[in-house]
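User: I'm curious whether this sequence folds into something compact or stays loose and floppy. Could you predict its structure so I can see for myself?
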Amino acid sequence: MKLLFLFCLLAQSPVTDSLDIKVEHLHDVILSVDTHNDFAMALAFPERRSTVAKGQVSFEQMKKGRLDAAFFSAYQEQGPRTLEGHERAKYLADSMLRSLHRYAAEHEQLAGVAYSAGDVKELKEQGKAAMLLSIENAYCLGQDISLVEHYYRMGVRMIGLTHNGSNCVADAAMDSLEIHGGLSPFGYRVIQEMNRLGMIVDVSHASRKTCLQAVQESRAPVMASHSGVYNLKEIPRNLTDEEILTIAAKGGLIQISIGRYFLSFLPKPEVGLEHLLEHIKYVVDLVGIDHVGIGSDFDGGGGIVGVEDMGKMKTITRALLKKGYSEGDIGKLWGGNVLRLMEEVARNAGSF
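Assistant: Here's the prediction. I'll summarize afterward.
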């Protein structure tokens, strides 16, 4: 009778899935990094209207999803390549970066700003999330090379060369008009200066020529912070095999975005984890586990069924385990590769 009572009691109690326990234990020891989100725009300019979902990013959601670090991007839409346009873009970028610093300071019990791979590791040990700073679209540089160091001093450790229009640095993937044939002469100088300072060159949004030229010019590995595989979804923003192979050959990373736009032509309600894992597997099969990771694009159009915000990030880990990825490989994919690249970029800067 007692055994029957105990059996009934257990049957009514929630049983924790052993795989979920494994996910939690794994996240205790690995470092997980998301290489792109657009939280900064709504933070700095809450009155601005947006056509994409917001509210997908916060330190609280990072903790819930077991995400240790993320690159928070200061984004500017491409505008006219004029003095006024460049001044406006710089104002936007500076405002967003100051807002991000303020956000971290206001939540210092939860997170801190990280400037190096070592900072990310230290914040993890303290039980805090790491905010890394980046810029999406070098439009804010105008044609002033000194602004690269200006942004480095503001804490920026990665700059995306373009957005959806060509600027004074380079041609963009989504711009039908080729202006420079890839990088401009100023763009080559920007990459050299980024190398000198220790900033990651981000080729997401860059045209095919820009991407290949940037990899060739950079003395340090480059990153595509939020992209997809062209052979799985043929859009200009996704990377061809040639680009993937070229980036990986110099130690760079292809970070797969968590968004229907990059992953599938299916309606958004039908795009989920299986599509994200398909793009990850493609890159792994082509160039190996050392050259792939995740860049969500949350608050900028990202989100799929099952991974709607940062609070759901550990579901990716569960899916990877179910697919047979080893714990070591998941550690590389989630953050080990990014920290390795950050360390290589910093070492390269020290050689100047």
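Summary: The mean pLDDT is 95. Strands lie at 33-37, 69-75, 111-113, 129-136, 156-160, 200-202, 223-227, 253-256, 292-294.
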